[in-house]
Amino acid sequence: MTTRPNRPASLLSVLLFPMLLTLSSCGLLETLQQNVDNPPTVQASTLALTKRPSLTQLAAYYCPTVITDATLRLLCTVAIGAPPPASTLAFQFGIHLTITNPNNTPVPALDVLLALRLFEGLSAEALGAICLSMCGSADPTCTGQAKPGACTSTQSDIRTLNDFQARIPQLITDLVTGKAEQELRKSTIAAGGNVQLDLAFQLGIDQALAVFQKVAVNFVTDLLNGKSPTLAVPVEAEGSVFFELKPVGRFGVGYGPLRTTWNIDSTILN
Q: Are 120 and 47 in contact (CB under 8 A)?
């Protein structure tokens, strides 16, 4: 489990100082001191790849494109197989968040931001980011689509969606269907309690295939030569969870960076 170090004192001073200048009620000040001891904390698990094609499927798809030698290209179908439909080459991954509220009052969670970087530091490096708005029990139509102003903050030390301007649109397309709506309704962290949030995402097929094509020639060539390669994909992720605490207002708590490696071999993961 990984968590970004929190700076409660500096965060709270930024959030509360403008308010304290205008407070006329000693009772309100005392309430704030009792209830807003620390911001919530966010711990995140390493990203887990939960669905992917096999390396052989990827090689069969890329072989006619990345192999430039006409004679060698004739071996693509014979040695590796016919190119599969792009729709069968989907990638999905999951993340587990533990949100803990150390305060004496419930704290509503507003949004979740996730940024994902594939092949960090390599020529194939690609960045994706997605913002989800939490639902709450009173909104039966909520799908997680970001609401106006979601994943934003005036805090200089919290990552917002605007910090990922270089992201590839739709590299992270959406939540995986199933229990997603149920997870998004875990939007209130009880006083002194915590919430376990399990989210699963899918990569846009066209966007992901464009990224993996940049490294495809190596594993395609290995398979044509009778080898059994494995593709190691360096992955880094980070993000923020945004909260509402009255009368303080909106603020964010960061998590990550999370680093792992997704290994793609000849087996299919689904």
A: no
